[in-house]
Amino acid sequence: MACSPVRVHDLLRIADATAVTGDGACPEWVPAALDRAPWVVVRRQAPCDGRIAVGVRGAGRERRWAGWLSPAAIVECRSPEQLLAAAGSVATIRQSAVPALRLLAPVAALMAAVGWAWGPVGSIGFELASGQPTATATSDLDLIIRAPRPLPLPAAAGIAAALAGLGARTDPLIEVPGGAVSLIEWAGSGSGGGVALRTTRGPRLVANPWQPDAPLETRISS
Amino acid sequence: MEILKYDYPAATKAFSHRAHVGVVGSGDLEVLIEPSPDQGAHVVITTSVNGFGPIWKNVIDRFFTRFDQAAAIEINDFGATPGMVALRLEQAVERSRS
Predict the structure, then answer these.
(1) Phi, psi (degrees; rounded to nearest 5) at B19
(2) What is the pTM (predicted TM-score) of this model?
(3) CB B87 to CB A140 under 8 A?
(4) Cis previous bond, A80, omega within 30
(5) Which of A77, A102, A128, B87 is most exposed, with minimal Cβ within 10 Å?
(6) What are the structural domains of chain B?
(7) Which residues pair with A142 in a beta bridge?
């Protein structure tokens, strides 16, 4: 299995498509999608009755299905960091077709220089895990940066500027102990007002992602 | 991509500020709020994910049960959850007052 416990964004290979159950009716495209690529992504939601919150990805943005998976059904688990390590084997034809795949190497060099662990998620992560062409010519490189300790604003702004300078679009999310925030939003939050912290119980506005329970700056009433 | 438009003619209180919040990124959205050109409120949503009109209507209707000002709201959505949409709308209103 390789990741234990599983974390948000991990991709899980499952042996049996029927292992994923949903709160509602299963859309008709789901069995075919899992047959083609038997991988699901861990969602940002707490486990329920021992089952992991997972998402199924189909063709097109509309085809996402939220479901639940028993840990016993996992045959393989790949974290974003592990996917990054395997990115060197991407076929040249895919690199030519998908600009976001060609960004992996320069982003890796950049992140190695600043010293924060990171990895690809979204369609690029899914393609690296499953080996199935998933990203397109217009896909962004969605990525996460692990920040168990605070990423200071100037450092965040430096990384954001360097990523922006790479040409094709990146979509960086900072994973903090209590959830995740957009790197772009955090880097630009110096003027106050809070940033959206995505948590397992939904998003909330916080002043400091590493101290989510500290009060937001009190606004002076006019 | 889909464009959704909702009007709230009963939201007529004066609104004179402007604010821009949110992020261009997966699971997020940008919200721009400014004074309406007429007496009611108007919402225009451009979303990258098709087919969620009824859920949008529900989230925006709920926002307008508490917000009653003549604002023009423009939303650029990148697959945000309803919870994130509600948070960004509240944040935009809060920011417009500061």
Answers:
(1) -155, 155
(2) 0.93
(3) no
(4) no
(5) A102
(6) 2-97 (3.30.230)
(7) A171
